[in-house]
Amino acid sequence: MGLQLLLVAAGAIAVAAVARRRGWPAPLLLVAAGLLVSPMVPAVPLEPELVLYVFLPPLLYSAALDSSYLRLRDVRRSVGLLSVGLVLFTTAVVGLLVHLMLPDLPLALAFALGAIIAPPDAVAAVAVGRRLGLPRRALTILIGESLFNDATALTLYRVAIGAALGGAVSVWEGLGEFVFAAAGGVVIGLVLAFALAWLFQRTRDSLVENTLMLLIPFAAYLAAESVHASGVIAVVIVGLYLGNRMHLRGFGTRLVSDAVWKVTDFFLEAVVFALIGLQLVTVVKGITGYRAWEVAGYAAAVLAVAIVARFAWMFGHTYLLKLLGRTSPTAAETVILGWAGMRGVVSLAAAFAIPPTVPARDRALLLFLTFTTVIGTLLIQGTTFPALIRRLRVSSEKEQYDDRLAEAAAQQAALEAGLAELDRLVGEQEGEPDQIQKQVIDQLREKSWRRSLSAWERLGGGTVPGGAETPSALYRRLRRDMLQAERQVFVRLRDERRLDDEVLREVMAQLDFEEAILER
Predict the structure, then answer these.
(1) Tell me: the pLDDT tens digits for 239-276?
(2) Which positions carry the signal peptide feature in this UniProt record (predicted)?
(3) 162, 178, 165, 181: which is closest to 221 by C-alpha?
């Protein structure tokens, strides 16, 4: 198992690297690659515990940490209607359809399938949307939905499976379990968030803080799940709270955190999507007692209903917001959000987690229908999603311009505050500054003016009339070339044994930070 996962990880990283180099959506290419190689390699089991307890918490935490609490608050009605209402609606519609097609299948298992395939995974949609300039509001709705819908779906799934195994669960009992799971997740998340914020105020060590951050999602998830609350909600609450207060951490913590979570996301998402495709043979082999055309028809019907249900809910949700006088997505954004219902590994993990006490024939069919829905939405909706965005001409160009304008105004205000503080500090000194001090003060003033000026210049795309480089663009280009020449000197001196490796690493880090500032 360990060797298999290592080989899967290595292959997934290679495929993801190709996708990044070509500018293709990595999740879709990884799933396709997994499907192609699945018949040619030994079966790679997808362990539900591995997905739900190892992969899911850090991915959720990273997404929450990188999200905007203020933007999510602005679209809270849409997020609530999608992450709770749409999941309930999809569960009911799919469950009733499956029960009509397969009357011998227990109704509880039919609803369990509905809960399994109800929550979309927005990773692929968000990746494509960001690359093609999907408006910020639509992206925020997608991200917010994906952060909370797993909690609703997994709670419904537990209730349905409990009923299928002989436990008589009433509507009120199911509702009570759902409310307890949600409220418990919120309470545990807030308690951990406050405690960790208090702890971080006293550490002030970027290495320690980021090491703790790697443990936080697992601790929050396990703490909530141990009392049958929602681990998903607990992780999301902690991530949103700490992400909103990240400005209180030191610059070192922020720099390291950004790098750590980018690498973590890249690695985990690559492995997860590769594992989805690799389940093809395992899923197909389990089907017994059905003719091929029967299971193909069941799979097509479930896939179609899952897609149509999302569209119906999206247009109803938009109409409801308009009736209430609230800001609602445009018609084009509604279509895009409706087509962004790609399912992911959480659905597949939940299907694999169906207890073995469920009849093997029913369990295999539910797993197959889940797999075909996940693959179908990823390959059908995922591959056409970019063309749909281009066709509807939905763009964030105005938002990007407004962002640059707001940044330039903020830089100007910050410049004035910084220079005022510099004047105050200089005025507190006794006597007139000497020549060296004057040079330092002039350099500080020049650096502040240059940073503010570069923000205004970006409004023009980095050029001035006639196509010439702006002063800031020229400065960055020349300084980057200078930094490269300086690096070569340090490396040459190290190779000549005139400079120790430890010293080389220190000076290279200084040059790297300066280049990072130039890039920003």
Answers:
(1) 999 998 888 888 788 888 988 999 999 999 999 999 99
(2) none
(3) 181
